[in-house]
Design a protein that fits this description.
Helix content is 30%, strand content 18%. The chain is of the alpha/beta class. Strands 1-2-4-3-5-6-7-8 form an 8-stranded mixed beta sheet, sandwiched between helices. Helix 5 links the parallel strand 5 and strand 6. The termini are far apart. 49% of the residues are buried.
Length: 297
Amino acid sequence: MKNALIAFLFLCLGTTPSFSQSNRVINLFPEGTVLHGNIAYQNDTLKKHLLDIYLPGNAIEKVPLVVFIHGGAWLSNDKYADMGYMKETISEIIESGYALASIDYRFSTQAVFPAQMRDCNAAISYLVDNADTYGFDIERMVVMGFSAGGHLASMVGLAKNNNVDAFFLPESNKDFHFKGVVDFYGPADLTLFPGANDAGSPEGILIGAAPLDRPDLAKAASPVSYVDENDPPFLIIHGEKDDMVSPRQSHLLSSWLTVKGVPNELIIVKDAPHFGPMFDAEEIRTKVMAFLRKSLD
């Protein structure tokens, strides 16, 4: 299973890990979309510290922002990933007058958790600090992620009000909040994985140990650990036949949110696997866009 998962990660969307400076997904966006590409959000030269900003071409006032976090088991893919099979959704985001910022972050093979959280929060801090430059309305932000990116999106959204210093760079701007989180099939509890006793599993590589051997590290890296009554609303979407991240992960997160009184909706997509165009189907896209409108408009 582990080898199959890693093979999938490098084949996901027909992409391979790449640090090309050209934007290979801009053609998926509506004509007139304004691109600000390969922005170094930490003012360093690391290729995993880049983000892309896509703006609606006809904006006449500050626009809401959707922060997009890619998947890849925390060890593959880049800020273009997941867009290929979500092309109708990302197009409609721009057509609806929202900006989209897609961020890169360091792989778990480069740095263990919480490096990924520091990177995601640093990217968001950059977007907030430069909101006037790009025309964002930072009072209207949603974070959206896929698989490992769904995990990070949930972590970013849930842990923000916990003020975990380890999740931020020193002197980083923490003055932001989210109106909602869209979590596509992200892990919620690292100890629920079949490979939780294997330090070489993707979740083990993420924290530097088998989750069952280091439940303290697994807890610190699990979204369910941060659920409280002050969290933003969630839309959680998971494939019924996902054999890489069990739908039980999303069920658990949804249940914790419900217990704490946080508005949330869990959608189990019938017959859907771990990723693919079934998540871009009109029925799901309508739900996603309705959630964004309710959160951002």
